[in-house]
Design goal:
Strands 3-2-1-4-5-6-7 form a seven-stranded parallel beta sheet, with helices on both faces. The chain is of the alpha/beta class.
Length: 271
């Protein structure tokens, strides 16, 4: 490997095959970073990287299912062997599917959602954590969601999993305090990706993936511990958090719900 290329910082991004993941990859690449991209669909991921002109010295693709702990941990180890220890690790892979607790099959949906969005995040970070501590630098980035702030009818799996992301990242930040390793928690609002195309409800302040990636890059570089993107959704979320439960419940009564599995698009890699 070219030593000049090796000196460039390295970012690892999961869920890199579409939406936010690709936008983040392009944004970091534009800033001169090397890329380690993790996705289940490696052929599509590699084809996209080739289209961007990212040669093997700039970008490596790793196949892994984030829901499989051994699989994603092994991908992290391969990254270290091939490209070195990343400077930033972004746990972006996620799924969002509606659920109805009265439907037994939807309990499986919840299990899968937590396996990807929560356990998968911890497993993504695992191979790098102790090595970053020893080095005294690095950043872990958890992609949560504005949906973490209040529970929405029909979103039991997604909202609770994203609340878990926020709490987990807060725990990790405290554990790493003083080590030189940072934790950044990002809460996207509505982003125009395949995951949101068939949503049956209004999506205020809808952002492009590229617009989100620009703001996310700024927050990561600034080592902001917690940020809602766009800021307008942060204001909306705080107002919703302040509403009394009775008023909140009344406000959401009759709101269209997210498609359950089999009703619309299948879950995609994106948070």
């Amino acid at each position: 490997m070219n030593p000049n290329t090796q000196s460039q910082p390295l970012v690892l991004i999961t869920g890199g095959s579409s939406g936010i993941g690709q936008a983040l990859a392009k944004r970091f690449a534009a800033a001169g970073w090397r890329l380690a991209l993790v996705a289940r669909r490696t052929e599509a991921m590699q084809a996209w990287a080739d289209e961007q002109g990212f040669g093997p010295e700039r970008c490596q693709v790793y196949g892994a299912d984030v829901a499989d702990v051994a699989d994603i941990v092994e991908a992290g180890k391969r990254c270290i062997e091939r490209q070195g220890l990343p400077d930033v690790v972004i746990a972006n892979a996620g799924i969002s599917v509606g659920m109805d607790t009265a439907a037994l099959e939807d309990i499986d949906v919840m299990t899968r959602t937590f396996a990807v969005n929560n356990v998968g995040m911890a497993a993504t970070f695992h191979p790098f954590l102790q090595l970053m501590r020893q080095r005294g630098s690095g950043t872990f980035v958890g992609i949560a969601s504005v949906a973490a702030i209040r529970g929405l009818p029909g979103h039991g799996a997604y909202c609770s999993s994203k609340s878990g992301v926020v709490a987990y990242c807060e725990c990790l930040r405290g554990e790493l305090r003083g080590s030189g390793v940072g934790v950044v928690t990002l809460l996207p609002g509505y982003i125009d990706t395949p995951l949101t195309k068939e949503n049956r409800y209004p999506m205020p302040f809808l952002m492009t993936p590229e617009g989100f990636a620009d703001k996310a890059y700024e927050a990561i570089r600034a080592q902001v511990s917690y940020r809602v993107i766009p800021w307008q959704m942060g204001v909306v979320a705080k107002l919703l958090r302040l509403l009394p439960n009775g008023l909140f419940d009344k406000l959401l009564a009759g709101r269209p719900r997210k498609h359950r599995q089999g009703e619309g698009r299948e879950p995609e890699e994106r948070s």
